[in-house]
Amino acid sequence: MNLTTELARPVSGYYLLGVIGNPIAHSKSPVMHNTALQEAGVQGAYVPLHVEPEHLQAAVMGMKAMNFRGFNVTIPHKVDILSYMDELDESARFIGAVNTVVIEQGRLIGYNTDGVGYVRSLKEEAVSTIEGKHVVVIGAGGAARGIVYALLLERPQSLTILNRTAEKAEELAKDFKVLGNVNGYSIDSAEQVLAQADILINTTSVGMHPHTDQTPVSIQHIPEGIVVSDLIYNPLETKLLTDSKHKNCITHGGLGMFVYQGAIAFEHWLHVQAPVEAMRRAVLASFTS
Ligand code: ATR
């Protein structure tokens, strides 16, 4: 992304930001972004906004009327919000969902920073490059969609999607064929596909609290020493990651994706570098408070 060093200009001298969703009370985004604003020395506030689906349009218009600089969008509004955007970034267009909105002189511009945030986190924390690698993604839902898009921009040698429901993996692969070498199969092909893998990424909820004893694939199929990444951040280390460590794998948890999707949103709103480490510390601290 092109970062200008000049701060975007607020209408009121104060940047208003927020997140709309339902449920929203337990979102970690407010603590993360308020810390970021403070750390970056920017006057403003980021608030959690509980919005019911039938009030989505009114909420969006309200934010425009109140001169919000932008906002995040979470479940269940990520797809429905598309119809209120004046402009869509390529990420949102390809993925078909918006998680970040910038309000630019009354115009609503929709972005999706989830996948790009994930890839930035993977590259900062686990791999030097994705180019030329064999990547395997488990799962074919909304989270996988954003990640497949962002991974293909990095030009892997191959990207294979494995899913419990094979048709969904095939469909997802078909949607992104134009961006690279991507195929979808049933999770039953895991043994064969994983034998070639350099990077394995779990996008399903298998292993998430409270089912922390589960893994999305049998550990015996994971080759020694590859990179294993899990989008789940509760727990911070899933059984998939713990078991992979025993096979000398480089592991990567889901917290970084959350932090970096926020960091990229912050940069879209304010045009200043996001204080990533302070944001990560704020989220981690909120887990224990
Ligand atoms: P998200 O937006 O988090 O990706 P989603 O769109 O509901 O959520 O997708 C969930 C993904 O996790 C799907 O790929 C789903 O597999 P199916 O397409 O077969 O439903 C996968 N998933 C969820 N629970 C699973 C389980 N117990 N075993 C295997 N895969 C599972």
Automatic annotation (TrEMBL):
The keyword Metal-binding does not apply. NADP(+) binds at E90, G139, A140, G141, G142, A143, N163, R164, T165, A166, E167, K168, L231, G254. This is Shikimate dehydrogenase (NADP(+)). It catalyses: shikimate + NADP(+) = 3-dehydroshikimate + NADPH + H(+); shikimate + NAD(+) = 3-dehydroshikimate + NADH + H(+); L-quinate + NAD(+) = 3-dehydroquinate + NADH + H(+). Signal peptide: none annotated. Shikimate binds at S27, K28, S29, T74, N99, D114, Y233, Q261. It holds the Pfam family SDH_C. The active site is at K78.
